[in-house]
């Protein structure tokens, strides 16, 4: 799983289980005999892109190693309402205790993958345009969200603040000017690292070109203004479009000629995919 080591995955799941179970699943422990076994079916209740099985597997592995998971729709595959996505079998106590944590991971990540895939499909006629995520992720969940974006057909922007220089409005204000911010950055970073600058106006775009930045982010510009900025830049820098990207406007943005479109909504506003777990007892 991209950007997520086995140790990190194990720890994220451990924290999620500790949060949900506390000192134990009281309801399950007082109503379900320890010897009882059964089979649970993960059923999709809506269409989308599935994502999150490595987390689901880890949930049940930590709760009870006797629980087995058979997956029919792997991460990245499309599903429709009514599809049986996977079957989990083994001790019912363990299955029930892990149900909510497993579904939380699976539903959220599938929602991110589905949202990403929807937007990617809307700009499929512009193969040169790359849809990327942002750092607008739930704290502690970034590696998972960014994995889901890739599963949905998108790409990743910076993983964290050490990845690249991205000079935004507050940096420009604090540094004194766009030029000063760029010159200071260039004097203090490795020659292999790129510099990106956020531009909100034509004046800033021109200044960014004058100081020779690698990437210019056109922030919250209307599509017509963006189109004229693409013409002005004329391939002298990679162009990223950002700000209020939606299903309604993403095609217009892609048509302006930008190279990259970044959308925070891929991770911070994705609707969870509706998935349920139905359990049948073994006789």
List keywords for this structure.
283 residues, alpha/beta, Aldehyde Oxidoreductase, domain 3, TIM Barrel, 2 domains, 6-stranded parallel sheet, 4-stranded antiparallel sheet, 11 helices, 12 strands, 43% helix, 19% strand, elongated
What is the topological layout?
Layout: H1 6-21, H2 26-31, E1 37-44, E2 48-49, H3 53-63, E3 68-71, E4 78-79, E5 84-91, H4 92-122, E6 130-132, H5 142-151, E7 165-167, H6 169-175, H7 178-188, E8 195-199, H8 202-210, E9 215-219, H9 223-233, E10 238-242, H10 250-255, E11 260-262, H11 265-268, E12 275-281
Shape call: elongated
Per CATH, the architecture of the largest domain is Alpha-Beta Barrel
What's the gyration radius in Å?
Answer: 23 Å
Helix content bin = 40-55%
Proportion of β residues? Answer: 15-25%
Q: Name the poorly predicted regions.
A: none
Number of helices: 11
The overall average pLDDT, rounded, is 96
Characterize the main sheet: 6 strands, parallel
CATH class call of the largest domain: Alpha Beta
> Structural class, from secondary structure content?
alpha/beta
Distance between the termini: 37 Å
CATH topology of the largest domain, by name, is TIM Barrel
Kindly report the spatial arrangement of strands forming the biggest sheet: 6-11-10-9-8-7
The number of domains: 2
Number of strands: 12
The run of helices and strands is HHEEHEEEHEHEHHEHEHEHEHE
Q: By CATH's scheme, which homologous superfamily of the largest domain applies? A: Aldolase class I
């Amino acid at each position: 799983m991209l950007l997520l080591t086995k140790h990190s995955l194990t720890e994220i799941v451990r924290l999620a289980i500790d949060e949900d179970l506390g000192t134990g699943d009281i309801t399950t422990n007082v109503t379900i005999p320890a010897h009882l076994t059964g089979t649970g079916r993960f059923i999709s209740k809506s269409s989308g892109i599935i994502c999150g099985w490595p987390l689901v597997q880890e949930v049940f592995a930590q709760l009870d190693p006797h629980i087995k998971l058979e997956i029919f729709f792997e991460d990245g595959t499309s599903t429709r309402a009514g599809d049986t996505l996977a079957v989990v079998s083994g001790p019912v106590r363990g299955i029930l205790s892990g149900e909510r944590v497993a579904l939380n991971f699976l539903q959220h990540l599938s929602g991110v993958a589905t949202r990403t895939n929807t937007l990617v499909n809307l700009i499929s006629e512009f193969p040169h345009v790359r849809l990327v995520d942002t750092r607008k992720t739930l704290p502690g969940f970034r590696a998972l969200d960014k994995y889901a974006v890739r599963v949905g057909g998108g790409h990743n922007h910076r993983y964290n603040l050490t990845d690249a220089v991205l000079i935004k409005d507050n940096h420009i204000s604090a540094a004194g000017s766009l030029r000063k911010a760029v010159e200071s950055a260039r004097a203090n970073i490795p020659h292999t690292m790129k510099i990106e600058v956020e531009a909100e106006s034509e004046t800033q775009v021109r200044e960014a070109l004058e100081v020779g930045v690698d990437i210019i982010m056109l922030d919250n510009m209307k599509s017509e203004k963006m189109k004229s900025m693409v013409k002005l830049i004329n391939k002298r820098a990679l162009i990223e479009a950002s700000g209020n990207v939606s299903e309604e406007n993403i095609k217009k943005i892609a048509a302006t000629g930008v190279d990259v479109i970044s959308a925070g909504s891929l991770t911070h506003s994705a609707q969870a995919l509706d998935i349920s777990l139905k359990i049948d007892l073994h006789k």
